[in-house]
Structures are given as C-alpha cells and as structure tokens.
Design brief:
Blueprint (H helix, E strand, L loop, with lengths): L3 E5 L5 H18 L4 E6 L2 H8 L9 H11 L4 E6 L6 H10 L5 E5 L4 H11 L11
Parallel strand pairs: 2-3
Antiparallel strand pairs: 1-4
Helix pairs in contact: 1-3, 4-5
Length: 133
C-alpha cells in the first residue's frame, strides 16, 4: 500500500468532499513521486466537471482551479468514474476523517479497517456489507 489519507472537513456537501478528496489524492501521489496515476471518483458530476473546460459551481471554484494547476504538471493523470460499491477502502478512509481533528491525516501504514477491505478485495468478496468493521 502506498499509504492513505483522510481529511476532517466538518460540515460540507458531497460535491465539495469529492473535490477535496481528489485534490488531496493528487497532492499525496505527486509528493511521493508517482508520475502516472489513475484516480477513481464515485461522483459523476465531479468527473464531468474536471473533464470539461467549465469551472463548475461557484462553491468549488478555488478547489477546481488548484486541481487543474496540479493536473497541468509533468505527469500522466487519468480521471475515471467508479461506482461507490467499488470504493469501499476510500469510504473507510473518508470515515476516518470524522475521527480526527481538523485538517489532513496521513497514514503510512494500512489501518485495520482498510486492511479488512483490501483482504476482501484480494479474495474476491465484492460487497463491503459482507465485512463487519
């Protein structure tokens, strides 16, 4: 595992949470020197916004501008839509963000919650509901 991160955002909507996750994911991988990545997002609206030339809704404008600045750096980033069911590890990390104080939490090792989900993925269990966290 490369590591992971979670951010405590407080109260916000799903659109902003997805944008923050995308921005933090870009920074996390770029700082670790990865030059070719594929980012999966479960929000089709965010994927469409990032693929278009438009800036999206006013609420996320600054985050989108920072994402586009990072995307313009010297690396290959593929943006994909994935259904929420395929991102159980991401959801577990997002939930960890509720457990710590404001700001970004970085995990250099796999957390127990995420370890169980990764094990389920490797063994072919596709529904996160089959795992008790």
């Amino acid at each position: 595992m490369l590591g992971g991160f979670s951010r405590h955002l407080g109260w916000c909507n799903a659109y902003l949470a997805e944008l923050w996750g995308f921005l933090d994911g870009l920074k996390f991988t770029y700082e670790r020197g990865h030059k070719k990545i594929e980012l999966h997002i479960d929000s089709n609206v965010v994927v469409e916004t990032l693929h278009s030339a438009r800036d999206g809704i006013v609420v996320g404008w600054r985050i989108i501008q920072e994402i586009r600045r990072l995307l313009a750096l010297d690396w290959d980033v593929k943006i994909c839509h994935s259904y929420r069911e395929a991102s159980a590890c991401v959801d577990a990390l997002a939930n960890l963000g509720c457990d710590h104080g404001p700001g970004l939490g970085v995990y250099e090792q796999c957390t127990p919650r995420v370890s169980l989900l990764l094990l389920a993925d490797v063994t072919g269990i596709t529904t996160p509901k089959t795992i008790s966290l």
